[in-house]
## 1
Amino acid sequence: MQKLPIGIQFFDSLREGNFLYVDKTEQIYRLINTGTFVFLSRPRRFGKSLLVSTLQHLFQGHRELFRGLWIEDKVDWKPRPVLVINFNDLDYHEQPLERALTNHLDRLAAEHQVQLQAEHYKDKFQELIVCLSAEQKIVLLIDEYDRAITDLLENEQKVAEHIATLKNFYSVLKTTASNHIHWTFLTGISKYGKLSLFSDLNNLLDITLDERFATLVGYTQEELERYFPDRIEALAARFAVSRAEMVEAIRFWYNGFSWDGKQTLYVPFSTLVFFELQSFENHWFATATPSFLIKLLRSNQVAAYELDEIYADNRLLDSADVNHIDAVSLLFQTGYLTIRERLPSVAGTEYRLGYPNHEVAQAFRQYLLADYLGPRVGALPSSLTGRLQKALRRDSIAEFVLILNSIFASIPHTIHLPLEAYYHSLVYLILSVLGFEVNAEEVMAHGRIDAVLELPNRIYIIEFKMTSAQVALDQIRARGYDQPYRASGKPVVLIGIAFDKEKRAIGDWKSEPAAEQSQRNQ
């Protein structure tokens, strides 16, 4: 087996070290023949830096590194000067961004054996481009263009300062493009700052949602099975399952990212770590805590159950106003939501969004639940989670409500919201984190079901209200929410739950069939 390139972002190190490389050069060939200024947004750990490094060596004519790959006999391999600016290499936390850019450009100039005369970072950038293009136009590759913005989204003053600095920096491209630059590729995580930073570049081609490049980075299902067959077989043997069952388990946990609603992808990093550790865990999610996103969802009062299915249009997905950040837009751009379906029409394209896979869904729900419960509670005690699971599995709704109310009582009153969506979200998150499959907000012909909870031995249809349990139960019956589930052959239990905002608890519940006497004021 070839070694797994975990954390390797340099194409030469990967190839010279005989690490496994999933060949993306056919799409790279298409990329370099598309546009003059090309922009791509993808979440972290998706292989953007490796792509930039691959492009660097391709344009520098290092044919030996591409031996055996699709592109080997497709280009002339004539070297061209390449300038790579990687914002991961800039230290803008301990010093002003202007100083960090100045120092970085001096280092780049020294690497290219150029002596810069200019003092200002903008002038240095322009001088470096002009010097490197003295004999032929250069290729400019910019990695993590937005790092100095997305790292500091909670610091509005710093973000404003960095946007002003970067706008000045990137303005050089307009004046140098036609005479000095052959091709430019810019990549980053978000689109925040793209419009303001590149407003002068009217020929910037954004391929983020371009179907031709939907699988440019990330692993497809076909690539996973083609490049990792021995490891899949080893895992099947380890877990004592068939190869087909193992492939399905890997798909369930890690596949699902999509930018066209058709082709789905694995994050390279978490996939490689999974194969190395041979353990189904949250590998991609564990590399960063989405604290800013959690705060944004709370401030925007986005219900947790809504994240399972959200509809958006191009304006929302392309949202790039760093001063008015939309929670759903940022969740999509950072990879916590993905495109499940693309719905084109003459009125414009609409997208159905949702969690990409089990890894992201479960980990993000755990962080959301911790935020809903507050720092004093943090996580649910294992004793309570065990009791909740047992109560549901043996149809003890009274005990289920009693335990939920004990959880509600432990939440600091300062973070309570007197909203149905708040309590609905809490119940949804608790059940999801416990491992129950909760189909929240399922659309029916006559409305939306608040929650459908399917267990091996029964199905619960749940409706939440701030009025009364009877009103909730009546709505389930009147709208026939339960009818599609009767054909399953499992007992179907209808539950109406009413929240009491004054007591910050479930004040009333009713079930049908009435397995137990209705309990009030638990």
## 2
Amino acid sequence: MIGYICKYTPIEIFESMGLEMKRIEPEVASFNQADTLMHPNICSFAKGVLEDVLANHYEGIILTTCCDSIRRLYDVLVEKLPDTFIYILDIPRITKDGGIKLYELRIREMLTAYEKFSGKKLDEKKLEAILQRESENQRSIHPAKGTRIGILGARANKSIHKILEEHGAEVAFDITCTGLDRKLLYEKDNVFTGYVRGLLSQFPCMRMETAANRDLLIQKYADSADGIIYHTVQFCDSYSYEYAWLKEIIQKPLLLLETDNTTQSYGQILTRMEAFLESVQKSGNDRKKLAKQKIRTSEGEKTMYVMGIDSGSTSTNAVIMDDARNIKAFSVIRTGAKSGESAERILADVLEKARLKKEDISWIVSTGYGRVSIPFADENVTEISCHGRGAHYFNPKIRTILDIGGQDSKAIKLDANGEVTDFVMNDKCAAGTGRFLEAIARTLEIGIDELGPSALKSTEDIEITSMCTVFAESEVISLIANNKEEADIANGICKAIANKSYSLLKRVGLEADYMMTGGVAKNPGVVRAVEEKIQAKLYICPEPEIVGAVGAALYALDTLK
């Protein structure tokens, strides 16, 4: 079996020699070996390929000159696997006749090297038969019938397609570097050259010449989609630049997905994609039909009640709302070790406060990271959409939301109707979140509730240079050793959080009015620091932790209308 990574790889040549070809799509749990063998700054895709190759038996690996990370991967593989055929194929950037001739020469050089390695020979008649058959059977792209989502960028993994399918969306196109069907040309009088011409005439990747018209082709494809997911490998600068350009010129909902090829990234992909689909998909008829079949009302009861429950990493919050959009009762409790158990506790608590029974609740919508672990919920909606609806409920003037919870932070942009138009999340690291503040409070030996008020008493500006929880704790310990005041350290922490939050807000665009939600919105030190950074006031509702639950309750009312 020969492994390869790039759509420009001439896999049909090897298949005509009787070899199985496998495109390597790494999805690993860790980079234990790669971190030992490669530089820390090498991209996660290259590391993932290395982990995959070392864990599986390949007769050969065909790499291409995509970028410096792949070149470094080649060096490591050659050293670690001396008995394996490792080859890096230099793909020309030009796609005209000169590039075709050069690529044909390079492919033949690779073929000679493999024939020497394996003793096998290419039968060009078999290659011709494959090309003739496949060129006749090439599929055309059919327009999607439902919500149409296009995929751009680099190496969209199977998870993205799976999530779209599970949520009733169709792929309008996938023009990532491994997404489209291969374009094979069969030229009877010049089989090999025609084959190479077809390889280079595929949808151009980022490294190809400007004359390949990638930008014009992207704009043409984009017109056929309701929304676009732009996927890239984390820290890949080339695709990040293209995304920034696309965001300015494409007038369609656009979601940036940065993944690191690990199994752990699935949760982040799922939350972002669900929120994006909620903002793109227009029809709620199926949800309403289902709700009408399951609607619960108590006998003789005229008022209809719904519940929203937000299961977060730190707190679980619930709201009961009547059909006039009035909040009947709410509750906030600690989540604890199991979100399902905290959901049962808060259900009992909020029902008692509202003086209602579970049978009185017509529809329950869950949100938050634990939303799928709540057995009594009728449906679930992402916290992105719910925070948008909840913020609009409390203050219709809000256009930008900063939500800092126990373990993640988000910036959300709203339109005049309270619909989410853009969002960014920081959920790969707890820096600047409630967990971060709890760790710092422990280091200062004060309660978490004391940290914000203490910061307001500061008289000296102290800069905290690290937002990593571990490093920040060490920095605080050093400041304590240097006899710095508790209030000044607390204020430095609050300003560091404000700086991190500001970078999130800038990515969605700073537009007044502003609102802060989540448990950290109760910290006056952080609130002051953020207001100073954005030079504007933050609207904070009386209980900022229930905004997501309120949004979930509003979705429940919408479902029943």
